[in-house]
Amino acid sequence: MLRPILNFTFSKMARSAKFAAFALTLLCAVRYGNAQDTPLLSGGVGFFTSTNGGNTSYMPTIQPLLDAPIGNRFLIESRAILLENFSPKGNGQPGYDHTHFIGLAYLEGDYFVSPHITIVGGSFLLPFGTYNERLSPIWIGNFQDGPLITSLGTMSTGTGLGGMLRGSAISRPKYSFDYATWFSARSGNEQFNSKRSSGVRTSLYLPPSRLEIGLSYDRLLQGPRGTRGENFYGMHVWWEPANTAFRLRSEFARGHHAQGYWIEADYRTQAFGGLDSWIGRFEPVFRMQQTFRRDTVVSDGLPLVNTQRTDFGFDYNLPHNTRILTSYSRQFSSSGNENIWETGVVYRFLFPAWKGKSQ
Amino acid sequence: MNQKYLLAFTIVLGVAFAPLLAMVQAQPQAAQAAKKQTATTHQSQPVEEGQRIFEQNCSRCHTAPEGFSPRISGTIVHHMRVRASLSQHDQQELLRFFNP
Predict the structure, then answer these.
(1) Taking every pair of C-alpha atoms in chain B, what is the biggest distance, in angstroms?
(2) Does the CB of B66 have a partner CB in chain A at under 8 Å?
(3) Do A39 and B75 count as a contact with CB atoms less than 8 A apart?
(4) Which residues in chain B touch residue A247, judged by CB atoms under 8 angstroms apart?
(5) What's the predicted TM-score (pTM) here?
(6) pLDDT tens string A244-280
(7) What ipTM was assigned to the predicted interfaces of this complex?
(8) CA atoms of A210 and A347, how far apart (whole Å)
(9) CB neighbours (10 Å) of residue A149?
(10) CB contact (8 A) between residue B29 and residue A356
């Protein structure tokens, strides 16, 4: 989740720069025993537009990701988000307003305790469902917008500050089972905002049928009377038939005050020269989603009234890790129907953070 | 367009075409991409195991980046071990796949 820095100042930027310089110095001081373990910089650079009700907003963004292993058992990982949003002033006024966001999506340390257990500490993406952890990077998602139920179970911040145990419990050619369980403390820190909560996610994957079924549960452990102890339940099903470029993903989430689901399908044909032919690079995408309010208490970020939305996307995978995303969405609700047109271009970069020594 | 008709239309469209597309693409000719990937590597068992792990875990979420420096292959598999909840064995096989 994005956290706005409304009172952003250069003193804070300088402090962040000092911290980053210190971290880089620390990493440079580490001897990398393996020539394949050079820290990497990855991420995406994107430019997006969104037109809703005749108003078009523009959003350039860059989301860098740093991965720095220390030895064979420790990994430091962080993703930052920098974006500027230009939107019409409205009320008949000419011109555009702009806001910016600068923040860390997460900053975590991973320690590989055993072949099946990894301890994660720091600020981490909450593993509820699949979207937050797997599909939220701009260079991965098929649509510019996340599903309407993204905020259910992710405690509105999307991140936790604490610890997590995760890993692959069993991994066999015919089935595998993985888990993640976590606890997050309450934090009002600007960069590491989180809520006191805990949860667990498990998933079963069947490689022969390429089917994944997972369950998520988490519980909010803070809040005013009436909202404390809120439970969230989730389920996801992914199916990606072998030897095809067809993917079907779906997720259901239920919270104390609302629930909803999304189903997304995307496809690339291999029939005309493979995925890298000019036809194979086209990727039609379709998503259907609905949200339902269970009561009128609004604390979860979902629409205030029952909402249905269909998204028709048409992406194009250019060479050199570049994607063009386009979509049309029609949203229905008692508060009014909407047409949403979105376009965007995303470039994904991936390279060593610095020149490493060869063995 | 009426809301109910649009929803019914999209659901019917999805239900009707999704399995059809999957079946069409499951034909032998559709394995070209996998063959292409394999052709660039040795055909030994560990590499096939690594490729299986790559297709089943990494490709599930994203397309493979178009090449990267071998100096960061170890870092990438560390990252994937956390994100895709790989076991240590899977991590090692994946590294072998990247560096046959």
Answers:
(1) 57
(2) yes
(3) yes
(4) 60
(5) 0.82
(6) 889 999 999 999 899 999 999 999 998 998 888 999 9
(7) 0.84
(8) 28
(9) 29
(10) no
